[in-house]
Design a protein that fits this description.
Blueprint (H helix, E strand, L loop, with lengths): L3 H9 L14 H24 L6 H11 L6 H28 L7 H12 L1 H4 L18 H9 L11 H8 L4 H11 L1 H10 L6 E5 L6 H10 L5 E2 L6 E4 L20 E3 L2 H8 L8 E4 L6 H10 L4 E4 L4 H6 L3 H6 L5 E3 L8 E7 L14 H4 L5 H16 L2 E11 L8 H11 L3 E3 L8 E4 L9 E8 L19 H21 L4 H7 L4 H8 L9
Helix pairs in contact: 1-7, 2-3, 2-4, 3-4, 4-5, 4-7, 5-7, 8-9, 8-10, 9-10, 12-13, 17-18, 20-21
GO biological process, one term: RNA methylation
Pfam families: Methyltr_RsmB-F, RsmF-B_ferredox
Keywords: Methyltransferase, RNA-binding, S-adenosyl-L-methionine, Transferase
Length: 530
């Protein structure tokens, strides 16, 4: 690991606020000028984001790079994206360290950036950057010792009495309330595994448009252009790119995109649409269509003679559903976008309800910091209302699928259970192959984003009494879960005091362990978003 004091000292000389300057064609001078540009643009984005709590760091990043568009190349854009998005992901951990060594300065954009570059970046993509890119242009020379202390300091000492929730929150950069909820619902081991997964870059996954081509044909076409692709494990429509987003234009410059041969869509999102088991000729209602990712897949499922009705309360989104993407996807004959809230019944109704989106934190780094715990109850109430509305549009014998991209029980199981209480005999559980009617997709298990699904079939209330396919799953006993957390907490504390040697345990509770570093590095990083 680099020495922060020397890095700051060596790179602070020759700082140019005006951007990169070519000095007689000297390669070292050119690298140094680019490094200063990377730092300046990164700071502009971070300061803008931190000045507006709850704002989107990706918007701040795009704005900062747009302002300097003329001076940025692909290399410098990637370096800026690594820093800005990396700080957003690791902000909880970085702020914890700064608060320990410099109380009151845990939201300083320049300190966060410099601490990230020295402490976090070397184990992510150090080999892709020139050494001059380290801390070029730093003005925080008076903070050298503080940075050095923060860089060498462990997250927690062996005698620290931090709770397990606090350790999870700091180690994997999560809001404390979210760490507490995950521990309570998932248990300690799964919660720490999920936290680690949320700090790793998500896969780049494509969904093949089978209305225009086949998965094998698209794989061959991509291969001819030097792009490796691998069929997804569960979705028969998916391909993931193991080498990440292609350079020189990204996914949107790949052969076939402009012809509508594929869309970018996480496999988990594809699995949600497949959970409807929509069949050719059926009428499907996508009740919260959003931008249409699942809508297009539903069209492929009901083709050639079925029909998909898409509805969203956002008028702008409804207009987009009939835009260029729909034309590329060749779904005009299969898709109807409702102008008003639908009233006709359908064979299948999909409710991908608005949610906290905490299951996709790794794709949207600032989402974890934008969400407030006080919002969860109102979100859940809205979800239940939408689900009840949509359930009235299911034919007798038809299917209803409720889904979110959240991993909070209050938005998932709790909403599904409350709906069952209100629905009474009208709906019976419709199980997956596992025998359960609810399913959760986890980043650290399936490799997808985090999603929840619940399914029911509409009953003929006049002639059938409700027959649950399986008994209601017994909820985890809160007291029992609390005891397991306490025991795990005690085990962690004892292991640390005795000098823990378990690589599995170390990789979960300490991001700096060798195992965690090898996992965190991954095949690629947030470079692609540059």
């Amino acid at each position: 690991m680099a020495n922060p004091s020397s890095a700051v000292n060596e790179s602070s000389a020759g700082s140019s606020p005006g951007g990169p300057q070519r000095e007689n064609g000297d390669p070292q001078a050119l690298f140094a000028a680019k490094a200063i540009l990377v730092r300046d643009v990164s700071l502009e984005a971070l300061r803008s984001w931190l000045a507006s709590p709850g704002s989107d760091v990706e918007k701040a990043l795009r704005k900062a790079m747009r302002i300097r568009h003329a001076t940025l190349c692909q290399t410098t854009r990637s370096a800026v994206a690594r820093r800005v998005l990396g700080v957003a992901v690791a902000r909880g951990r970085l702020s914890h360290l700064l608060q320990e060594v410099a109380p009151g300065h845990d939201c300083d954009a320049e300190l966060l950036l410099e601490l990230f570059v020295v402490r976090e970046l070397p184990r992510v993509l150090e080999e892709l950057e020139h050494p001059c890119f380290a801390l070029a242009g730093s003005q925080k020379t008076e903070w050298r010792q503080v940075l050095a202390d923060a860089c060498s300091r462990p997250l927690f000492g062996p005698n620290d009495s931090a709770t397990l929730a606090k350790r999870l929150s700091v180690a994997w950069s999560l809001p404390l309330w979210m760490a507490e909820r995950w521990l309570q619902h998932l248990g300690p081991l799964s919660a720490f595994q999920l936290g680690r997964a949320m700090c790793q870059p998500a896969r780049i996954t494509l969904r093949v448009n089978t209305l225009r081509t086949t998965r094998l044909e698209l794989m061959q076409q991509l291969s001819e252009h030097g792009v490796r692709s691998i069929p997804t494990a569960e979705s028969r429509f998916g391909l993931w790119l193991p080498d990440g987003r292609p350079p020189n234009g990204g996914v949107w410059q790949l052969p076939g995109y402009s012809q509508g041969l594929f869309e970018v869509q996480d496999e988990g999102s594809q699995i949600l649409a497949l959970a409807t088991e929509a069949r050719p000729g059926e009428r499907v209602l996508d009740y919260c269509a959003g931008r249409g990712g699942k809508t297009w897949l539903l069209c492929a499922l009901v083709a050639p003679h079925g029909r998909v009705t898409a509805w969203d309360v956002d008028e702008d989104l409804r207009k987009q559903l009939l835009g260029a993407r729909a034309k590329r996807a060749s779904v005009a004959e299969l898709l109807e976008v409702a102008d008003t809230k639908p009233s006709s019944q359908a064979d299948v109704v999909l409710v991908d309800a608005p949610c906290s989106s905490c299951g996709v934190c790794r794709r949207h780094p600032s989402q974890r910091w934008a969400l407030q715990e006080s919002e969860i109850d109102s979100i859940a109430a809205q979800q239940l209302q939408i689900l009840e509305e949509a359930s009235q549009l299911v034919h007798v014998g038809g299917r209803l699928v409720y889904a979110t991209c959240s991993l909070l029980r209050a938005e998932n199981d709790a909403v599904a259970e409350r709906f069952e209480q209100l629905a009474g005999d009208c709906f019976r559980r419709w199980p997956f192959e596992s025998g359960r009617h609810c399913r959760t997709l986890m980043p650290h298990v399936e490799g997808t984003d985090g999603f929840f699904m619940a399914r029911w079939q509409r009953q003929n209330k006049a002639s059938e009494s409700r027959q649950s396919i399986m008994p209601v799953a017994t909820a985890r006993n809160d007291a029992s879960m609390g005891e397991s957390i306490i025991k795990f907490e005690e085990a962690v504390s004892m292991s640390l005091k005795r000098g823990c040697t378990s690589p599995t345990l170390l990789s979960l509770i300490n991001p700096e362990s060798p195992v965690a570093q090898s996992v965190a590095a991954g095949p690629r990083s947030w470079t692609e978003l540059g």
